[in-house]
Design goal:
Order of helices and strands: EEHEEEEEHH
Structural class: alpha+beta
Number of helices: 3
Distance between the termini: 74 Å
Length: 159
């Protein structure tokens, strides 16, 4: 069920919203082949009505299932927006959509979660990537050795 609240409940007090949103409600699947949202997003939000707008602030937290961009190992990446805030105008061109006195926060949460995705997910900052096919069994690289042999053979050609 999407994260919605009734604006009538804000007339004389602030709201405290706490719970979780399942991955199917967030509908983030398929945006990035290396990042998947398969666990629920936890939220702890305070909602208050201002003059002609609504202000929402609080914490959003979700664990992303990622594949390393270098070595393709699976790993989990905790994503926390500890000071998330959203300003929703009630009037004007950018006024928030209200349906039966309900405002849906899900699209705003989805947008900010996607913007916070890691650009280049790595299992470790020092990940070396996939093992090179030219790697010596003793652990040393033979790449420069093979490259120099190739150039020496090309240097023998007479034009």
């Amino acid at each position: 069920m999407p994260l919605k609240f009734n604006i009538r409940h804000l007339e004389d007090r602030t709201l405290h919203l706490q719970g979780d949103l399942g991955p199917e409600e967030l509908d983030i699947g398929g945006l990035d082949e290396l990042i998947h949202v398969r666990k629920p997003l936890e939220y702890d939000l305070h909602v208050e009505k201002m003059d002609k707008s609504i202000f929402v602030q609080g914490r959003l937290e979700v664990t992303l299932e990622c594949e390393c961009a270098r070595c393709l190992k699976a790993f989990e990446h905790p994503l926390e927006l500890g000071d998330w805030a959203c300003h929703l105008p009630l009037e004007g061109e950018e006024a928030v959509a209200i349906s039966n006195d309900l405002i849906d926060l899900t699209p705003y949460i989805r947008e900010d979660i996607v913007l916070a995705f890691p650009q280049h997910p790595l299992c470790r900052p020092d990940c070396k990537g996939l093992e090179s096919p030219h790697q010596d069994p003793s652990g040393g690289e033979r790449e420069s050795e093979l490259t120099s042999q190739a150039w020496s053979e090309l240097n023998k050609l007479k034009f």
